[in-house]
Structures are given as structure tokens and as C-alpha cells.
Amino acid sequence: MATPKIVLFYVFTPLPDPEAIRLWQQAAGESTGVTGRVIVSPHGINATVGGDISAVKQYVRATKRYAPFAGADIKWSEGTGSDFPRLSVKTRPEIVTFGVPGELEVDENGVVGGGTRLTPEQLHELVADKGDDVVFFDGRNAIEAQVGRFKNAVVPPADTTRDFVPLLDSGAFDDLKDRTVVTYCTGGVRCEVLTRLMKARGFGDVYQLDGGIARYGETFGDDGLWEGSMFVFDDRMTVDFSDHTEVIGRCSECGAPTSHIENYPDRLGRELRVVCPECVPPERASTADAVPASS
Length: 295
What we know:
Blueprint: E1 4-12, H1 18-32, E2 35-41, E3 44-52, H2 53-64, E4 75-78, E5 87-91, E6 106-107, E7 110-111, E8 116-118, H3 120-130, E9 134-138, H4 142-145, E10 148-150, H5 164-169, E11 180-184, H6 189-200, E12 205-209, H7 212-220, E13 226-228, E14 230-231, E15 238-239, E16 261-263, E17 272-274
Helix pairs in contact: 1-2
């Protein structure tokens, strides 16, 4: 019996020849039969792939044979067997598109000048010590926070990752520059860059949740500081961490509680929105092809 799994990982490390890494990753993915998305840039690799557990394990072993990727933090989750329509391996200037590749510096240890990493347990210790002085800062697209977020988090009005730099430069969050700020995102990759950008703009006490929401959910489930579901960039759309996940999303059509997200343009033309299945005509139901890359 097939056991579908999905793995999420990234590594920031200098890659002198991203195209060579792309070709190797394409071959590794095709030979093992996994599907998903892999982004390679001069700064490293960012991947989410899925398939039967044996295929995924073979792909992970092949990837870790390359010395700079040997220490990759692999985050596992349950799949459905049809989470991605195909394997896509691309090269880009950034592995997460903030639009400022020249601002990022990486070495063999990762991003240079980023925020302090916190394990889920260390996050709880920080909150216990500093209480309300800790500000959670969501490093994802705003749509993702509609169905799940940390309690009382600041959620920037970002439609894509490219929106963060203009928002930071606008001064909209200058009141947080003297606060203790903990950034978080799905698996940690966006906050690796975001904390670097924030520190370069005068934010003094900046942390990042190591392993992101995915690792926090593995550790504390729904019995900690997280509320709701985690949005994911595959056909599952959302992941719950327990059998008692709180539903905090509201349908954009009828207002009913829901954590369901569809590729169903709203009145403002935005492709993704929170909408209960009953409010989506069958012919407009989402397909995996329409799920955007993690931008």
C-alpha cells in the first residue's frame, strides 16, 4: 500500500553554478518519481516535493549526498498522493522572491546577518520571560494568516513576498523597531531573509522561528500559541495539527467559519481566497495547477 509523504526543506549556501544544481535536481526527482517544486538560486535551494514514502526517501538521500545540502532540516508531513501535478525545477535570482537579491549575503553557515533562531521550546521560554513585549510578525502572504496565525500576530497586508520591502521601507512598522519581534512563516525560509532585511532597516531585537510553523506544529500541535490551520503551497491547501484545530477563517461569501481556501478570484481579482466549499460553484473548484509557488 502506498504511503504518500511530503517533504519541505531549504538550504542557504553559496551555489556558484545554479544551473548545474538544477539539472542534477531534475534528474534526481525524475529518477525517484517525486513531484513538486524546487527553486535553485545562487543563494541556495528551496524545495517541496511529494510522493510515496520510498520515493521521497530516495530523493532526500540523493539530495543530501551533495555536501552543502547534507545538513538540510527536512520537515515531513502526510500527503495525499496527488499533491503536485508534476515536478518543476527552476533557477531564479532568489529562492524566495523578496525582489532584493543584492541585499542578501550567504556563506556556508547560511544567511549572514539574520535574526536569532528560536526552537519552539525557546519561543515559549521567550514569551514566558517577556510576555506582551514579544510581538509575532507574520512573514507570509496575508491570505495565509486568514486561516491560521500566532495569537495577536501583526499581519502585514502583503499579497506576495515582494510587498514586504516596500512595507518595511514605508515606515508602517517603525513602532516595532524597539520591540522584541519574532518572525514566522511556513517552514522558515522566508524569515531567514526577512529578518536580515528587518535588521538592516533598524529593527534591533529580531528572532525567527526555526523550522517555521511546520516545526512548531510538530512540537506543540494546537496546544500552544498557534491558532488555526497552516496554509501550504500544494493541493492540500491547509494542514491541521490535531483533531481539535480551531477554525478561525471566515468565508468571504457567506461569513461562515471555514479554513477552506480556493483558487477562486474574488471581487478584487485576487486568485486565492477563504471560501467554504458550498459557496464555490463546482466548475470553479481549484486544481493543483492553479496553486501558486511560495512567493
